[in-house]
Design a protein that fits this description.
alpha/beta; globular; about 290 residues; six-stranded parallel β-sheet; 11 helices; four-stranded mixed β-sheet
Length: about 290
């Protein structure tokens, strides 16, 4: 019998395809199946051996799965799927709506504790790797911590735009402000607002007959995603989007200013190094 961790993937967009590729590169994992809301026959996985089933059939495969990787969008999919599936499976997800992480954690935690499962939320780039950087920075340096994302594609924000009625496809770039980064480097970042730090640039393909002004308004006023930022919306054709915006570039910077320094160790969880409570860390640094 194989000792490999048996993985199920829920959702097969960019994240789902990435998870499929990642599992194939880890010898201690094996992919059981992809589960989708779309008709399974319409999904073409990258690996010919990957099985695809309807999400409604997932309970029939429960005994085959050790961990589910949830690859749905943070705006609409994960708030429902995360708590629901954590009540029956061990789960990992990349929920990335920072302002809603505390409530999302509470909902998933309640269901997982009741079911005796384990759920790891908000893993990935940010929240995820950058979050750990923020905790280490504050624990060792004190002072202020500033995070700047991009320039790069935000998959979560792009997905949120694609959910707007009238949108056929979309890509969103986050652009950090060079002036804000310089201010943070110089120790003058305390007064920077959300709008000061970043701007968002959207490239949108409309469905036939869609009202561009209605779509633009829906984007720039979307809470937690665009309403606090300077946001520019460009309407483009499908060919232009595929030609010029098919890549997935990303980057970012975490800057910390403090009064002292120290060496780190790799086997101490960053949360134990921080004077903050777990609730504060989830709400403010994740």
């Amino acid at each position: 019998m194989s000792d490999a961790i048996r993985i199920g993937i829920v959702g097969y967009g960019n994240l789902g395809r990435g998870a499929e590729a990642a599992v194939s590169r880890n010898e201690d994992m094996e992919l059981v199946a992809v589960f989708t809301r779309r008709p399974p026959a319409s999904v073409r996985p990258a690996r010919a051996e990957t099985r695809v089933f309807a999400l409604a059939e997932i309970d029939a495969h429960a005994q085959e799965i050790d961990v589910l990787v949830l690859c749905g969008g943070s705006k609409e999919d994960l708030p429902r799927q995360g708590p629901e599936l954590a009540g029956r499976f061990n789960c990992v997800d990349s929920f990335d709506t920072h302002a809603r992480i505390p409530e999302y954690f509470a909902a998933v935690d309640e269901r997982a504790r009741a079911a005796g499962t384990t759920a790891v939320i908000s893993t990935g780039w940010d929240p995820g790797l950058f979050s750990i950087g923020r905790v280490y920075s504050e624990a060792f340096l004190g002072g202020e911590t500033h995070t700047f994302w991009g320039r790069g594609v935000s998959q979560g924000h792009s997905d949120a735009i694609r959910r707007i009625p009238g949108v056929a496809d979309a890509v969103q770039y986050t652009q950090p402000s060079a002036a804000a980064i310089e201010a943070a480097r110089n120790g003058d970042g305390a007064g920077l607002t959300t709008r000061d730090r970043h701007r968002r640039e959207c490239y949108v393909v409309l469905e036939d007959g869609a009202d561009p002004e209605a779509v633009r308004e829906a984007i720039v006023t979307m809470p937690h995603y665009f309403d606090e930022y300077e946001t520019t919306v460009h309407f483009v054709g499908a060919e232009e989007l595929e030609r010029d915006h098919a890549g997935m570039p990303h980057g970012g910077v975490v800057l910390a200013a403090g009064e002292h320094g120290a060496k780190t160790v790799f086997d101490v969880p960053p949360g134990l190094l921080s004077p903050r409570s777990p609730e504060e860390l989830r709400a403010e640094l994740l």
